[in-house]
Specification:
Elements lengths: L1 H4 L15 H31 E2 L3 H28 L8 H7 L10 E2 H25 L5 H24 L15 H12 L4
Parallel strand pairs: 1-2
Helix pairs in contact: 2-3, 2-4, 2-5, 3-6, 5-6, 5-7
């Protein structure tokens, strides 16, 4: 782990034309956390794919693989942007765990509806932080901003796919924006059983 620590917060020796190395370093740090979030999301989606059970198993199981593939492409694009800016992308599990600001996914083998409730919370966190990164690149790096906006188009679409399973006929989500994964899972399961 010592090798990556020396790169943390450092200014690259070069960056793209039209940006200062300080600006490049700032965007690299921002993208570093987006890279961690996307790597974590891809692993979480695959974890759910393997651990989902119940009557909606096949629908959810098959819905998740295209999401995993799309998120993996986002990961690759993010890492390549970091390199383009003169940085070094760190995609190892140890660095991700050491630097992330969120907890590990909490559900194991569970009903599809429970996982979907929890995934709604996961997607909300990733999307909110991506939107903050978009705002942060508003004046410094429109190319990175464009990349993040493209990610958001897909991430928000995928969250809609998830939410379609946990939305009532009246258009109300079983989860709330401030739920933990376990609380969201419980609420989604309760709604599926007809409990408010």
């Amino acid at each position: 782990m010592a090798a990556h620590a020396s790169n943390e917060g450092s200014t690259p020796s070069y960056t793209v034309p039209g940006m200062s190395t300080a600006e490049g370093g700032s965007v690299i740090q921002l993208l570093r956390m987006r890279l961690h979030a996307l790597n974590d999301l891809a692993l979480t989606l695959k974890h759910v794919h393997w651990n989902v059970i119940g009557p909606h198993f096949i629908a959810v199981h098959e819905m998740l693989d295209p999401q995993v593939d799309a998120v993996r492409e986002m990961i690759d694009n993010t890492a390549e942007r970091i390199s383009t800016l003169g940085g070094s992308p760190w995609g190892t599990p140890g660095v991700l765990v050491a630097e992330r600001t969120w907890h590990d996914y909490t559900l194991g083998r569970a009903e599809a509806i429970e996982h979907l409730g929890a995934l709604d919370v996961v997607y909300t966190g990733v999307i909110e932080d991506h939107r903050k990164a978009v705002k942060a690149t508003d004046s410094s790096d429109l190319v990175t901003q464009d990349l993040l906006i493209e990610h958001l188009r897909k991430l928000e679409l995928f969250q809609w796919f998830v939410r379609a399973h946990i939305e009532s006929g009246g258009g109300k989500l079983a989860t709330s924006p401030h739920d933990s994964e376990s609380a969201a899972a419980e609420k989604a399961a309760g709604q599926a059983r007809g409990k408010p």
